[in-house]
Amino acid sequence: MKLVLGVDAVRYPLTGIGRYTYELARGLEQKSEIEHLRYFAGHQLQAALPEPHLSGSEQARADSVRSMKLMLLKSRLAVGLHRGLKSVLQARALKSLKDYVYHGPNYYLPPHGGPCVATFHDLSMFKHPEFHPPERVRYMAQELPVALKRASVLLTDCEYTRQEIIEYSGFPADRVLSVPLAASGDFRPRTHDECIAVLVRLGVEYKRFVLFAGTIEPRKNISGLLDAYERLPEATRKHYPLVIAGYRGWRSEELHARIVSAQEQGWVRHLGFVHNADLPVLFSAAQAFAFPSFYEGFGLPVLEAMACGVPVVCSNASSLPEASGGYALSCDPEDIETLTMLLVRAIEDEGWRAEARINGVAHAATFSWSRVVSETMHSYRLALTL
């Protein structure tokens, strides 16, 4: 088998889809069945998987490029010109690779004469456009129908999203496969001594905080989490501050102002983007993990917290019941009163916490990246038969 894997998402900052692509690529590199593996970024083929770790100056440059791209997205003329030129260049680069399977792990598929597989992580841009910048919704509305026409097989991260895509697109159900994600082996329980060096650098204390990790954006319901946390007794908030780890996202100006205010009051600590090497340590050191998102295509941070033996409070929306397996405390994302009570229990109820640690670790162990890679390989074989 010959394979081209799109790796545009493997870049700083390495957020959800980038991490999925990176872990998948590392697993595919070990598969002897793949005789040739090429990577595709922008409109260029690459022999090696990009590394998402950047120096300080490279990070600043990446932030600048990202800002420029966001500005260009706001211009419909610029987007149209960019799409047209990019499509021509991509077709030219892939012209001689018709005997390769092309996998687009981030929705999009370029012009390719061979079989194509696309991963659709969720349909939030259509189901909840209010959570996204309007320019992104417009761009996705143009690109996703193209990907559906080009795709031989579609992958999703969970059964919930699989059913959504079948209903939304009418794509043949037998060619839409659910491949659940997994926490990497770096996410595991750690002792105080294993965590202390990273925690000192980040300025937090072992088992003295509740963690939220994710991009700062409306879909994650961080505002609701702050509402719930503000209702906790002051002594609890101060003893177990809410630590927010995540890259600055879109439509988050008011939220950031509120985070700054809560940080000044001493019950929130905002770390910004946390590097991959530090993130599993931060998870392991938390007293509890809170993730009351309105909508997720899978909810990998929930599984990562469980793999670290950390009790989880999350919403019961979309795919999160699949990710949590019923071992998290959960409620409607808009039910702030219940969310507050669940946070108290996750922090203070030692009996439930002990059960949650055992059950969470066992549940997370039923997911693996070797399974993700194997089932993704199955999708490639299926695409080759169509």
TrEMBL record:
Domain Glycosyltransferase subfamily 4-like N-terminal: start-end pairs: 16-179
Highest taxon, organism lineage: Bacteria
Pfam families: Glyco_transf_4, Glycos_transf_1
Residues annotated as domain Glycosyl transferase family: 206-357
InterPro entries: Glyco_trans_1 (IPR001296), Glyco_trans_4-like_N (IPR028098)
Keyword RNA-binding: no
Keywords: Transferase
Keyword Transferase applies: yes
Protein name: Glycosyltransferase family 4 protein
Natural source organism: Uliginosibacterium aquaticum
Higher taxonomy: Bacteria, Pseudomonadati, Pseudomonadota, Betaproteobacteria, Rhodocyclales
